[in-house]
Amino acid sequence: MPPLSRDTPLLDLLDLIEHPDDLRRLTKRQLPPLAAQLRAELITRVAQTGGHLAANLGVIELTIALHYVFNTPDDRLVWDVGHQTYGHKMLTGRRNAMSGLRMRDGLSGFTRRAESTFDPFGAGHSSTSISAALGMAAAAKLQGKTHHAVAIIGDGALTAGQAFEALNHAGELKANLLVVLNDNEMSISKNVGALNQHLTRLRSNPVVNKLRSGGQSLLAQTGPLGEILNTTRAGLRDGVKHLLGVTSLFEELGFAYFGPIDGHDVTLLVETLENLRTQTGPRLLHVVTQKGRGFNPAELDPVRYHGVGKFDPKIEPQPTPAAAGKTWTQGFSDWLDTQCANPQVVVITPAMIEGSGLARFAAQNPSRCFDVGIAEQHAVTFAGGLATEGLRPVVAIYSTFLQRAWDQVIHDIALQNLPVLFAIDRAGLVGPDGATHAGSFDLAFGQAIPNLTIAVPSDALELQAALNIGIQAPSPVLVRYPRGECPADLGGEPAGQPLGLRVRRRMPTPQHSILVVALGSKVQTALTAAAALPATIVDLRWAKPIDWVTLRPLIEQHAGWLIIEEGSKLGGIGATLIAQAAEQGLCKPVKHLSLPDEFIEHGTRQECLHDCGLDETCLNRTMTEFLTQVLPA
């Protein structure tokens, strides 16, 4: 690439950058127009592919400044969550690949080690960056290396316990770690809690701001004390900050705290980071940004524009493609409306008011809806405490996020047999968000826990029925449902008992048919795939307990049986069914279709299901082949 100069046309800046080394050859004067170009192209790129919009727009200047100051990839930039790294990808050799963002065989929507050396740690869930960067800093010290470790974390992610565990450890280690706190007052939903209030005080307190910038004029106003302070060492100044009540939580944890500064002033960011790069020990830079910066609809409504589908950038985008019918999340929201009059019902969510369908209930019952921030473990145990006092807690959470709190489900809820209802959204494959967000393991985890009952509804009527049972049960109940459109009523025979299975379609000659046992989202697919085949379709409805009274004779009557679930094969419900059938002496041919023992990469949901053999076409082929194996010629 030819040398850059002050005369390089501004419109060509982004085209000249193929690597952060190219960025570092720019003058500081060229960084603001580069930020404008990067922001404009990011809007165009996301318009073509869909993806996370508002969070990425808010960190354009910060992304440029970090790569400008630090010698990446030798210096490690560890992004928390990773959904705000589109600009980072474009500056690190992946700009041309952005057309395949979140598509099959394309770029991940998050950081991923296998994708680039500029992604030193994979992400997808929040609050991991400080722990990972601290590990890198400790490793550098042990190995005698001098590269820097930088963790970039949002104020929403900072509410999780793991982030505080890492901050506490870093302060004790005196590690050479820089934490950049990207404070936009948002996660996905609006941030809540005491930490958010603390950051607000730091942002707004003029005493803090003046002390951080030197505080000469402020201290002069304090009379003789101010004159002394202007000539003393930093230790005495820190003492006065304590007296004035303006010390930060981070300083108490052993961090040198800097800020807050304007996260959209790229020149100021660069100069501040250059200073911090020369220092050692635990440091925290507090940067204030605006989520959705530079795109008016996203600035006005950053929650709605957290994630969007494809759109025309000249027209206001839609957050997600409109579904033909109601989604599972909307079905859950409709059920919550029926609980408004029950004062015992309370709802808990870890920072997912909108995503989990709680907005209406929260608006109508603000004192009974608790958004605890990104704190899944606390959410579960908090629900347990509510349950001990006679309330009926509903924990609304995505399957992938519940993975963080299974210890609490076991120890704090199930062991004590507390009546907590878990509404588990996004169970199974989720498509573009990929492996980090797939709800693959809740059935495998959950069925091993005593006292926990598990419902897997297949349509809107079953969802309502399962939730009604769950809210009245004397013990914990988990109701799992997928992403996407929810069928209204799949029909068939009624269940023989509340927790019993349903025969959705029965063959008159079972000895010449196969039995298909399907769970949840796979019931509708099985009905369609087997429309022209001799197959009895059973909707298991409840994964635990299993209705063996009804299921056993059905297995005995049919030539063979096939189990379909959108969950992990190892430890899944199918594995349990097969093992228990064998113990009962039911030696019929059987086939188990589920998610393989691997992480499913991003793509459309249909592509992911096809790869796992769980779409309609694959199921029809598998059923046809199985029929030829079990039926006489």
Summarize the structure in words.
This protein is of the alpha/beta class and 633 residues long. The chain has three domains: 13-184 and 253-303, Rossmann fold (3-Layer(aba) Sandwich), CATH 3.40.50.970; 328-480, 3-Layer(aba) Sandwich (Rossmann fold), CATH 3.40.50.970; 502-630, Rossmann fold. The protein has 27 helices and 19 strands. It has a seven-stranded mixed beta sheet, sandwiched between helices. A five-stranded parallel beta sheet has the order 2-3-4-6-5, sandwiched between helices. A five-stranded mixed beta sheet has the order 14-16-15-18-19, with helices on both faces. Strand 15 (514-518), helix 23 and strand 16 (535-539) form a beta-alpha-beta unit. Helix 6 (129-142) packs parallel to helix 7 (161-173) and helix 23 (521-529) crosses helix 27. The radius of gyration is 28 Å and the shape is globular.
Number of helical segments with 4 or more residues? 27
Provide mean pLDDT, rounded: 88
Rg, rounded, reads: 28 Å
Low confidence ranges? 1-10, 206-220, 226-246
Structural class: alpha/beta
Helix content: 25-40%
Assembly type of the shown chains? single chain
CATH secondary-structure class of the largest domain? Alpha Beta
Give a concise summary.
This protein is an alpha/beta fold.
